[in-house]
Every structure is written in C-alpha cells, then in structure tokens.
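Regression test case RT-17, inverse folding.

Input:
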C-alpha cells in the first residue's frame, strides 16, 4: 500500500454547520495534495459532501443522544478514500437504495446513486451503533 500523502478528520454533532466544516477540511486537504487532478478533487469532494449531508439530513438517533458525524479522508498517490460515519445512529433503511437513480419527479433518493456514480467503490458497515460508509476513488494517473 502506498503511503498517505494527506489526511483530514472531522467529528462533531451531525448539524448543517458540520457540512461547512467538512468543506473547510476538504479545502485544506487539496492544499496538501496539489498532485490530485481537478476532476478527481471535484468528484470525490461531491461524493464526500453528499455522504456527510445524508448523515445530517437522514440519520435517526438510536438513543436520546444526538447523532455525530465523523469524516476521515485519506489521500494516497493512487487513491482517495473517505470514511463517513454516523455515530449513535439507528440502522438506515436501504429498501430503495438499490433501485438506482429515482425518476425525475422524485424528491429524494438520489444521494446514494450519485455517490456510487462519483467513486470507484462504496461499502457500508454497521457496528456498535455506528453506520459507516467507505468511499474510494482510484486517482487519475498524472498526465491525463
């Protein structure tokens, strides 16, 4: 495995202000990783923000304690990886998540389909009251 070239982490209550903080972390990350092509930056950032926004908008607390959003982003020369966690959240309902992109009239349901279109892999795990999505994007080789 190649060495980590840049890393950023965030963890706080899952509020709209947390999304701004994740944006700020991403901005700083790209300053530390100027070798990442603009297209990779844009698509990966969009996927990370979409996943974090889904936690803020849709995560339901498992207990009376508010849900916390955690985002850990790791940049290697050949890959971009983000771990987006909903700490203290109930298990999400994925009943419509595998249906693909919803119709043009749908008001919800595009988030996971968009994320899947923007990254190479998406995995989900649940352990000890935490829902975790790992988003990976293979980096575009230099010179493309």
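Golden output:
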């Amino acid at each position: 495995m190649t060495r980590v070239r840049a890393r950023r982490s965030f963890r706080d209550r899952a509020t709209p202000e947390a999304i701004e903080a994740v944006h700020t972390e991403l901005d700083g990350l790209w300053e530390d990783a100027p070798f990442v092509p603009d297209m990779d930056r844009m698509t990966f950032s969009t996927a990370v923000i979409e996943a974090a926004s889904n936690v803020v908008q849709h995560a339901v607390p498992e207990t009376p304690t508010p849900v916390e959003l955690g985002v850990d982003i790791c940049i290697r020369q050949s890959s971009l990886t983000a771990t987006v966690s909903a700490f203290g959240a109930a298990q999400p309902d994925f009943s419509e998540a595998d249906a693909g992109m919803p119709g043009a009239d749908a008001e919800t349901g595009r988030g996971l389909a968009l994320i899947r279109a923007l990254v190479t892999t998406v995995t989900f795990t649940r352990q000890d009251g935490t829902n975790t999505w790992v988003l990976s994007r293979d980096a575009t080789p230099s010179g493309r």
